[in-house]
Amino acid sequence: MCGISGILRAGGEPVPPGLIDAMIATLRHRGPDGEGSYFAPGIAFGHTRLAIIDLSAASDQPFIDDEAGLALSFNGEIYNYIELRDELRSLGQQFRSTGDTEVLLRAYQQWGPGCLPRLNGMFAFALWDNRKRTLLLGRDRFGEKPLYIARSPKGLVFASEMKAILAVRPELREANRKAMYRYLSRGDLDLDHESFFDGIESLPGGHYLLLDHEGRGEPRRYWEPTACEVPGNRAQAIERFREILFDSIRIRLRSDVPVGSSLSGGIDSSSIVSTINAQKTVQWLHQKTFSARFHSKAHDEGKFIKVVTHRVEAETHEVWVEPEQFIDAFERLQYHQEEPMASASPFAQWLVMQLARENDTTVLLDGQGADEILAGYDQAHGMFLAHWLRRGRLDKVGRELSAYGRRYRGIREPALYAAYYSLPGTLRDGLVERYYRSSKVVSEDLHREFAPGHVDGPSPFPDRLRNELVRWQTTTQLPEFLRYADRNSMAFSREVRLPFLDHRLAEYAFGLPPDLLLKGATTKVVLRESMRGIVPDGILDRKDKLAYAPPQHQWNHGPLRAWILGKLQNAVRRGEFFNPETVREITAKFDSGGDDTLAWRIASAEAWFETMVERPALAAAAPAEISPISW
Question: What is the pTM of this model?
Fold first, then answer.
């Protein structure tokens, strides 16, 4: 796990070393174990290393093979590197290290960009081929690891975080009007390749970018969601799911530094911790768990955490999340997140990563991704009901609504979601804006320029239900959560690994029949049934879902009230983005105890402006001297 950065200059123009030094200075939190650089005509890399696999200098980066004419700067982990190394050796490749970095370089040497579908991991990398004079940028299937790009007529700048690009191209520290419109009017974050900085974009997950020496080239997709064949027998289908999950966790325990788990007490993280315990006969691991606790009984999962840790005899570490801590840490948290936050929930994960560092645990396995691939969110009920309505299965609709009513004492929420997901996407966006009156939050110019701002999700499947579920993965919520996880962990030089985002498991989940995802108002059926006897029944049979989040409404109208009001008052002056009159109305309503949804959204956007545009003074080190250069 590392920080990567680099510059490609058209025409072979040399890159001044000061530029790379400045980029490295902003990324040291991602790699405290070493740093390095690489220079060749027209290209330069900067790297900061967090050593996880092969701690020796043999795996230092940039990893250079002069004989092959290759240089690699790689962030992430290739979990199947052992199997790939064995295969590559059988094909004649030779190795001088034992880590996964060289495996990636040799895989490119053997298969070119065709190596990407063979990788099981999370990664973002830059590989310079000096013989072909080409730069290959690649990103993992789901975009777990970040990779940002800024193009210009003179070439390209790339980095793991936008602050590294801004260190050498400060003129890009301007708000992206489209991204700001999407967030203010609809709450969308990390929706596609657009970032909140005008001129900086991300390479989409599942894509690579092959550039010639002039910087020419466009992203190409190497993976999209697909469905694997699932056994027709229900018991066999559940067993196969368990086998893939077990193997996903097994290979994500590969590490030369201490590994622990992030445990919320929910089904997903409890399944990981319990599976590790079940695999003790295969590989020994002293379990350490790290959890966030809340003083609000309605949000605290402490009793469930104890059920799991007692069962697996884990060494437990807990941190209590306080709103006052959030205010104190906010500017640093925002600096690392780089884009607005939809709530205060990322702060809980922030404290968990800090706790892991305090207890010398470098790697944490986490349950993120299970809800996305297994239809675990409340909205999934609406997706399935709409699916059955389209097929005229009123019997299924009736049974599900009846089951939901018995389980949760009311059917209003799934019925509303069913109506919502029965509509075309453009109509849905309009309804959301009207329901929240959010379109009035933005300035008239911004609304006129970008409304309605609908973004179509991918449609790799013939049925709409599967495509709605894929949309959750790729454009709705998962990219936002992956950003939170990457930035929170790397702020403390920790690594997060996500077993549920193993592409083998995701592709298998896409092939599952609907009743193994949702049945009788029970979500994630296949996970619950596959973990029976492994995870305590008290966890598997839970009906509530707390989402590891703080009591946001209580905080907003309590300890965070003055902070939010201050941001709302400051937002009035940004008439280019906000509608001042509407902001004043929302401020008055919030001040009198009214709805806080739009108040938070405006306040977080204003906080982003203040921290990231007006006061970018949190650099990890003094900026290096930069030679003048034209872009």
Answer: 0.95
